[in-house]
Amino acid sequence: MANKDILEDFIIEDEFGFYCAYGDFYIDPKYPVTTAVISHAHGDHAVPGHAYIFATAPTAAFMQYRFVQQPIKSYHIKQFKEKFYIGEVEIEFIPAGHILGSAQIVMTYRGVRYLYTGDYKLQEDRTCEPIGYMQADVLITETTFANPEIVHPDPVEEIKKLNTTSLNIMLGCYSLGKAQRLTYLINIHCPDKKVYTHHSITPIHRLYDSLGFVKLNYEIYNRKILKEGQHKVYLVPPIAFNSYFRAKNIVRVFASGWERLQHANDMSLYISDHIDWRELNIYISKVQPREIWTVHGDGSLLKEHYADKIIVRNIFKKKRITV
């Protein structure tokens, strides 16, 4: 790729989200805008109300389920590696490996390639597309766990911890992506366990069954389930998990890469859908960027690590002025 000039303001962060003035669109805006390019369907990246939405088919399906009043005609579905233009900016999606349909957003303008990762992971996850790689001049990366002291353990060894108890387990997790990954891991590596899903998780499991790559084995929870027998795992969203403090004879577990979410539980379960420090540096070695712009976290340790090698800075924040 030609060593052309990088536009320092190609993507800036304003009060609505990440904005590209050169194509007049937003990436993962926090509030309704005219044109939105959505990396994935988690609530901190996808909101309703946009006039035009560019996304992968699974992302659009999850958004349609959650945002029933969003007009169907507003969605513009794009396949992975399908090139399209918004203004003069060429865009394509490549897999992010975060959840089903999650995309990195590759933008090329005046010969310079800008790669926005969204949330991503390198760990194997059979419930979603494996991460894709592409060389870019500018890498715009999340830094959720950009700390050398944070190392995510093997998810298979983590999920096998559930085999150490015959008691029923209440397993807290996020409804979209994490719950489906956990279900598959339990199905494969905890064969004596039976998975039951909270009513808010079940519809998303069904979408994964229709759109995804693996069959999920589970049943819908009812109030008698945890009172009868053992070796059962009840998947619940965080709000339900936090309300069940009085449950007896149940092992409380929450699946997360955050240490602060493990302290009050009966068993730790470090399963994250984000990259850790080692994976971040592996990824950077594959992208070979000239500059790294950081979002969603603290990039100071990354900047220190690549001092005198790669320019690392926070994405510029500006207040957008509209007339």
From TrEMBL:
This is Ligase-associated DNA damage response exonuclease. InterPro entries: MBL, RibonucZ/Hydroxyglut_hydro. Coiled coil: none annotated. It comes from Sphingobacterium thermophilum. Keywords: Exonuclease, Hydrolase, Ligase, Nuclease. Transmembrane segments: none annotated. GO terms for molecular function: exonuclease activity; ligase activity. It comes from the Bacteria.
